[in-house]
Amino acid sequence: MLKNKIYKYLSIEIFKSFLTILLTFTAIAWTVRAVNFLDLMIEDGYSMIIYLKYSMLNISTIITRFIPLSFLLSMIISISKFQSQKELLILWTTGLNKMKVVNIFLLIGLTVVILQIVLSVIVNPLLLNKSRTLLKDTAENQINSMLKTKDFSDAFEGVTFYVNQKKSNNELIGVFINDSSGSLSMIINDANTQSSSTIFAERGFIDGKKIILFSGSIQSLNKKKEIKIINFEKTELNIDNFSTRTIKQPKIQETSSYFLFQCLINKNTSKLRKNCKIDNHVLIEHLSRRIGMPLYIPLVSVITSLLLVQQREKKINFLNNYFLFSFAFVVLIFAEITLKYSGFSLINFIGYFFSPIILLIILYLYLAKKMTIKNI
After folding, report:
1. Is 324 exposed, middle or buried (0-12, 13-18, 19+ CB in 10 A)?
2. What is the pLDDT of residues 196-232, one digit of tens each?
């Protein structure tokens, strides 16, 4: 019963340290990234609410990237604190087996592994895809808020808007639209030869997904460099014809892990060959990041457990702590660097996944032997 309380106390202290460090790193990194996202409001005209939602949906990816480093720091700090406060010494004198403590640290590492895999495999792709969909839908539904008075707006790909004045009833005065993407070709019935179009209108307003313009003209330039001018009293532009700058095809970070697995295993099938246009090495690299990178966390827990082989001199203890932290940190850097090469060959792929497991077993057996020799 007493030993269970001790194990629970050690686990809680490590998790408290881990969460504190992780949330601190996440808050700093998220603040920096949120500043970069300010362009969504300043240049693209999205509302504050959309900006905050988009920023919040990116937090989980930041958390995932900082989990390994945060876990390493929490283990080093927690074990050093236990040693400095003589808590571990008291535990050893009561007959507590050090290998059981090592097993507790390893179990904590495995718990963190599960957390990171859940985030990277399931949560992150889902939230990133949702954030992109949020921008796409908002651009189509809130175009009125994106049009700024006496300023050029290019929220849609290949289409530039300029409005001289916006009245309180959302009426637009002096509307200029330049289209270089061919989105307006349908309204001038020149879809095959359309090159670019320019619309001038005295006034207009937005009704749902339509822009209704009055008293203006459409100037089109076809591929033969011929200019065609059409005057109108009233015309309607459907916003659905415009393409937002948001990438329609989800990035690989936003693609579900299930689809990536299907793409990797059954890429030769006709359906997946059409939908999956990702290179094999890129595909394997991202799957390795989602599943393989977390495997290095238990290795970190075993490396830091070497601190339990206590030295008597404080100077040696400090150097030992510094060395083990550096060693574990280099392991994480190695995992990050070799990740980019994991998809180049089958040997690289197998090596990336099995390297932390093999090294973990070696260090675990070394710990067991070391503590048996010292009769602890």
Report:
1. buried
2. 788 888 888 877 677 888 888 888 776 667 777 888 8
